[in-house]
Amino acid sequence: MVNGSCLCGAITFSTNATPKAVSMCHCSQCQKQSGGIWASAHVPEDKLTISGDVTWFDASGVAKRGFCGTCGSFLFWKAHDEDLISFALGAVDGPTGLTLEKHIFTADKGDYYQISDGLPQQD
């Protein structure tokens, strides 16, 4: 079981599904919304229980981003044409039990850090 919440606790989420695609996203949108790199994993949308009032931002023609309207925590990413939903690993309460698999959108990464962990990188 994975449980998580926003900073103020107004939004909680949980899943019994095994999270997949554990990644660090370096895209410009994640940088602007999170202030840096966004760590996430995804599960089928119907396997994630969300409580609270998520504010959804239609970030592009491809996906929307979910956050708490009270504290601003960036919690979810959902492609318009998929049945998967990504959740922020930093919002998980307690240990995740997960291991980072890859870095994505590395072509957009900031110039102020290096990726040197040897994991796969996708431009």
From TrEMBL:
InterPro entries, alphabetized: CENP-V/GFA (IPR006913), Mss4-like_sf (IPR011057)
Segments passing through the bilayer: none
Source superkingdom: Bacteria
Keywords attached to this entry: Lyase, Metal-binding, Zinc
GO MF: carbon-sulfur lyase activity; metal ion binding
Domain CENP-V/GFA intervals: 2-114
PANTHER family linked to this entry: CENP-V_GFA DOMAIN-CONTAINING PROTEIN-RELATED (PTHR33337:SF40), GFA DOMAIN-CONTAINING PROTEIN (PTHR33337)
Family membership noted in the UniProt record: Belongs to the Gfa family.
Stated name of the protein: GFA family protein
Organism: Aliiroseovarius halocynthiae
